[in-house]
Write a structure and sequence with these properties.
The chain is globular and about 70 Å long. The chain contains 15 helices and 5 strands. Helix content is about 60%, strand content about 10%. It folds into 2 domains: about 170 residues, 3-Layer(aba) Sandwich (Rossmann fold), CATH 3.40.50; about 100 residues. It has about 300 residues and is α/β, with parallel strands linked by helices. The two termini are about 40 Å apart. It has a 5-stranded parallel β-sheet, with helices on both faces.
């Protein structure tokens, strides 16, 4: 079901008195799981969607604790550099301390005699200790409390986590829903069609593609790959710009996949193209594990692909 249908389903579950407990809200990244849960929480608490905070709702993410946020602010105010390694390690997962704080919050008395809601977004970011610490509460739900676990890939969750939650799956949006969503952006008809094709039912990806002007970036990338002579410096500049933040990196990965799928059927050396693609995907998976420089991986891939062209 769609994100809007998921929201309506949760409303019906609440009206039937069957909400308390744990829910796994799963589906591909960007299909609207977060939006559906947030809309339902506003409905449950009787608040307007413009309200960003509610004392009976807690979101647990790969974020910093309140104390760590204060320490970061203090460090910056004192003009000292942040520890980059510790920064990356902290943001890599949801820890047992994060879950402990969430469960402690869930056990408190409601500030307004309402429901207490804990959201874990995204659930597969929990490390093993964090997931195990959550299990007992999933087995023994407290009245007037609800836990939502949002997951892009439920297969990464412990089987014991999945078995203790009721599951609602959010399906990718239809092309019409994506087009309606894109009408809020200043895009031509052809650009909308391009974004819809690449978004593959994901509102989140559609927004990233539209915001970054993906059609123009795709044309720029395609021109770089057929330039004669091939210009390594231009490729390095393009990759540096596209890998500057997480959103642009996601867009670049999507554009590369589309380019490859579009041009492979006409390739003069299809075996070489496929070998290059397999190596590129494998190396991307190893970027974190082997501490590889992301820009070097993409630049090398573009240079090899450009020479195959």
């Amino acid at each position: 079901m769609s994100a809007s249908q998921t929201f309506q389903q949760l409303q019906e579950i609440y009206k039937n008195g069957k909400l308390a407990g744990s829910w796994l809200i799963c589906g591909e990244k960007g299909v609207g799981k977060h939006t559906a849960v947030r809309q339902f929480i506003h409905f449950l608490m009787g608040t307007d969607e413009s309200v960003a905070f509610h004392p009976d709702v807690k979101w647990v993410t790969r974020d910093y604790t309140d104390k760590e946020k204060k320490d970061i602010i203090k460090t910056l105010q004192e003009g000292r550099a942040l520890d980059e390694q510790a920064d990356r390690a902290r943001k890599a997962e949801i820890t047992v301390e994060d879950i402990a704080q969430g469960l402690m919050f869930l056990g408190l008395t409601s500030a307004q005699n309402q429901w207490r809601v804990l959201v874990i977004d995204t659930a597969e970011d929990m490390n093993t200790n964090a997931a195990n610490s959550l299990l007992k509460r999933l087995e023994e739900p407290t009245p007037q409390t609800v836990i939502f676990l949002i997951s892009h890939n439920k297969g990464k969750l412990l089987p014991t986590i999945r078995s203790r939650c009721r599951t609602l799956t959010v399906a990718p949006a239809s092309d019409k829903e994506i087009v309606d969503f894109l009408n809020t952006f200043d895009l031509s008809f052809d650009d909308k069609a391009f974004v819809v094709r690449l978004a593959n039912g994901s509102f989140g990806l559609a927004q990233d593609l539209a915001t970054c002007d993906a059609p123009a970036l795709y044309s720029e990338m395609a021109d770089l790959l057929v330039a004669q002579p091939f210009n390594d410096a231009d490729v390095i500049s393009f990759c540096s710009r596209m890998l500057a933040d997480e959103t642009k990196t996601t867009v670049l990965q999507t554009l590369v996949s589309h380019y490859f799928a579009e041009h492979l059927p006409q390739a003069q050396q299809p075996r070489a193209w496929l070998d290059l693609w397999d190596n590129f995907q494998s190396t991307q998976r190893d970027i974190v594990n082997l501490n590889l420089e992301k820009k070097d991986v993409f630049v090398d891939f573009f240079c090899q692909l450009g020479r195959l062209r």
